[in-house]
């Protein structure tokens, strides 16, 4: 307990000192500002180059080394590319498996978005002069299989639809994390046009997740009513 109190006092002392310094700076007309995304002075702006067909491409000041941020960026691009390819195969099956028509439409619509997201990634590969050889995402493979297994444990109806929504949102959250991280890496590396492309896909994933949450509320209510009815029959 004494150690905890000492740590709390040290934290409060440091916080108060920082507050005093900030007030002094403001009084001297030197108010500090938090740097905004894309404007950090330590971020290097990458030059652009024109390919033979006249297309503007973003290039690097350095070649890719085995221990560089650019290599991490490229590996994650290939990983999410494989994710999209896996989902293009999985989403039609998910649409067939559910019973609620609005949920079927949601999966079909997201399939169209996923195909566009795959095409965007291919444009990024071309812009960075990367090959399309993807790296299999074992996490997504496992999540898809887990979703299939979960849905197979329930009969067709609201409860199975609820299981499908839960499985789909797990996938959406993974994609949101992946695209969010790629966006930040692209921004740090100075690939600002590529960051904008990735941000479009990120916004779509976030929108799909919100829509699934709305569908989930109605589906969960129906599932509860069905479960409650069956309990009274027993």
Summarize the helices and strands and which ones pair or pack.
Layout: H1 2-27, E1 48-50, E2 56-58, H2 69-97, H3 101-127, H4 138-152, H5 158-189, H6 192-233
Antiparallel strand pairs: 1-2
Helix pairs in contact: 2-3, 2-4, 2-5, 3-6, 4-5, 5-6
Commentary on this structure:
Strands 1-2 form a two-stranded antiparallel sheet. About 19% of the residues have low confidence. It contains 6 helices and 2 strands. With 234 residues, the chain is mainly α. The longest helix has 42 residues. A hairpin with a 5-residue loop joins β1 and β2. The protein has a single domain, classed as Ferritin (Up-down Bundle), CATH 1.20.1260.
Number of strands: 2
Fraction of helical residues: over 70%
Order of helices and strands: HEEHHHHH
**Distance separating the two termini:** 53 Å
**What name goes with the CATH superfamily?**
Ferritin, core subunit, four-helix bundle
Main sheet strand line-up: 1-2
Net shape: elongated
Assess the beta-strand content as a share of residues: under 5%
Cα-based radius of gyration, to the nearest Å: 24 Å
Enumerate the spans where pLDDT stays under 50 for 5 or more consecutive residues: 4-9, 18-56
Total domains: 1
């Amino acid at each position: 307990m004494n150690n905890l109190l000492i740590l709390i006092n040290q934290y409060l002392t440091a916080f108060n000192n920082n507050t005093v310094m900030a007030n002094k700076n403001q009084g001297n007309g030197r108010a500090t500002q938090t740097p905004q995304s894309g404007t950090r002075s330590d971020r290097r702006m990458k030059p652009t180059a024109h390919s033979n067909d006249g297309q503007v491409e973003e290039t690097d000041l350095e070649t890719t080394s085995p221990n560089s941020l650019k290599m991490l960026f490229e590996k994650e691009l290939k990983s999410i590319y494989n994710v999209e390819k896996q989902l293009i195969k999985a989403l039609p099956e998910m649409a067939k498996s559910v019973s609620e028509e609005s949920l079927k439409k949601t999966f079909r619509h997201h399939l169209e978005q996923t195909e566009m997201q795959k095409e965007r990634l291919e444009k990024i590969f071309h812009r960075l002069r990367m090959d399309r050889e993807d790296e299999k995402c074992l996490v997504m493979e496992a999540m898809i299989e887990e979703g299939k297994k979960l849905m197979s444990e329930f009969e067709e109806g609201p409860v199975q639809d609820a299981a499908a929504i839960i499985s789909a949102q797990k996938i959406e959250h993974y994609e949101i994390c992946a695209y969010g991280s790629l966006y930040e890496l692209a921004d740090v590396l100075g690939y600002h046009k590529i960051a904008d492309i990735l941000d479009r896909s990120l916004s779509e994933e976030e929108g799909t997740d919100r829509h699934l949450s709305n569908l989930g509320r109605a589906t969960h209510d129906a599932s509860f009513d069905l479960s409650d009815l069956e309990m009274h029959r027993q």
